TrEMBL record:
This is Glycerol-3-phosphate dehydrogenase [NAD(P)+]. Residues 182-321 form the Glycerol-3-phosphate dehydrogenase NAD-dependent C-terminal domain. Residues 10-161 form the Glycerol-3-phosphate dehydrogenase NAD-dependent N-terminal domain. Gene3D superfamilies: N-(1-d-carboxylethyl)-l-norvaline Dehydrogenase, domain 2 (1.10.1040.10), NAD(P)-binding Rossmann-like Domain (3.40.50.720). PROSITE patterns: NAD_G3PDH (PS00957). It is found in: Cytoplasm. Its EC number is 1.1.1.94. Its main location: cytoplasm. The keyword DNA damage does not apply. NAD(+) binds at residues 14-19, 142, 257. One of its GO terms (biological process) is glycerol-3-phosphate catabolic process. Substrate binds at residues 110, 257-258. It catalyses: sn-glycerol 3-phosphate + NAD(+) = dihydroxyacetone phosphate + NADH + H(+); sn-glycerol 3-phosphate + NADP(+) = dihydroxyacetone phosphate + NADPH + H(+).
């Protein structure tokens, strides 16, 4: 099936859980959507049966088709969405360098690599002009949205008209975008919440309850905000959907791969066992070292992130993580904006 070359055709690169469900969001808002994935069984399943193993028990709208040919995905598309995991962004997009023209691009990716945010890497890899890329981030568990449960999100671009353009294309009866000019803040929120969800998941896996969860969410918000402020983000972003909103969702749901990954660690699985058990990419495990490196380069203190890195990369147990955080020196309550707290 090929896309129709009209103003409502969107090409999505990446047909995992979020790319596929976002295709449904766009189709329900009136677009034709063509998904690219290198997985032939997923192409066949979407084109032949309107189903995908990434979103079980969901029948996708007829306006969605799939292709294993990257050029076919983008050639008829008026707008382009990037929905691959952070580690695959460069390999997935590099064949398209210089071919996007003046079309608008939207990143759904939540990750950081080598000190660079996804907006920077995607823009460079595709050869985009300034502000051609918008970022979508918020409390958006794909499986809930697949069931058309109400969800809000944030679309960010320093040029608000471009963010509005994307909001017009994806707003529907159950999906409501808010707007922001704070791309960096939205990206930091979407990254750090995954790391904190690993810690919260680990505490849940150890059998700990809601007090521990609230403590980690609150102090996690402080870490996220400190890093964001040190990087020029706006403080209010972290009190919005892309900050506390996504943090609460990801730290509260067994639908979250990061929460589940952490929970498996808390139950005693090794990092490699937890990775095998994971039903999709857990970006927090992929990116926690990058977040810590970024924080260290700026002199920002992120004790929960540091403890997560020690579990993911240095063989610490979930129990050791808890002991270490509880043994820290006394602090003042509240979100201090001092980079060292
Ligand atoms: N699943 C969710 O609820 C949400 C996910 N996100 C973010 O969206 C991004 C993608 O996540 P998911 O779709 O959930 O991942 P997933 O783990 O469900 O699927 C990953 C997809 O990427 C594809 N892929 C891998 N390498 C590729 C390549 N080189 N070229 C093209 N496709 C490639 C795989 O074939 C697979 O279809 C992540 O950064 C995640 O944090 C953001 C919000 C919600
Ligand atoms: O970003 C998400 C929810 O907003 C998805 O979280 P997980 O990647 O942990 O499943």
């Amino acid at each position: 099936m090929t896309s129709q070359n009209n103003s409502r055709t969107v090409g999505i690169i990446g047909a995992g859980a979020w790319g596929t469900v976002f295709a449904q969001v766009l189709a329900d808002a009136g677009s034709q959507v063509i998904l690219f994935t290198p997985e032939p069984d997923v192409v066949d399943s979407i084109n032949g049966y309107h189903t995908s193993r990434y979103v079980p028990a969901v029948t996708l709208p007829a306006q969605i088709s799939a292709t294993g040919n990257l050029q076919e995905c983008v050639e008829g598309a008026k707008r382009i969405v990037v929905a691959v995991p952070s580690h695959a962004v460069e390999s997935a997009l590099s064949p398209l360098f210089g071919q996007i023209g003046d079309r608008e691009v939207l990143s759904l990716v939540k990750g950081v690599r080598g000190g660079e945010f996804m907006s920077t890497i995607i823009s460079r890899t595709l050869g985009l002009a300034e502000h051609q890329l918008s970022v979508l981030s918020g409390p958006n568990l794909a499986i809930e949205i697949a069931a058309r449960q109400p969800a809000n999100t944030v679309i960010a671009n320093p040029d608000l008209e471009r963010a509005k353009g994307w909001a017009d294309v994806c707003a529907n009866a159950y999906f409501r975008p808010y707007l922001s000019t704070d791309v960096r803040g939205c990206e930091i929120g979407g990254i750090v919440k995954n790391v904190i969800a690993l810690a919260v998941g680990a505490s849940a896996g150890m059998g700990l309850g809601t007090n521990t969860r609230s403590a980690l969410i609150t102090r996690g918000l402080a870490e996220m905000t400190r890093l964001g402020m040190a990087m020029g983000a706006q403080q209010e972003t972290f009190l919005g959907l892309a900050g506390i909103g996504d943090l609460v969702t990801t730290c509260s749901s067994e639908l979250s791969r990061n929460f589940t990954f952490g929970s498996n660690l808390g139950k005693g699985l090794s990092v490699s066992q937890a990775k095998v058990a994971s039903k999709g990419v857990a970006e927090g495990a992929q990116c926690c070292q990058d977040v810590l490196d970024l924080a260290n380069s700026l002199g920002v203190e992120m004790p929960i992130t540091e403890a997560v890195v020690d579990v993911i990369h240095h063989g610490h147990s979930a129990r050791q993580m808890g002991e270490r955080l509880l043994g820290r020196p006394r602090k003042m309550d509240g979100v201090s904006l001092q980079i060292v707290d």
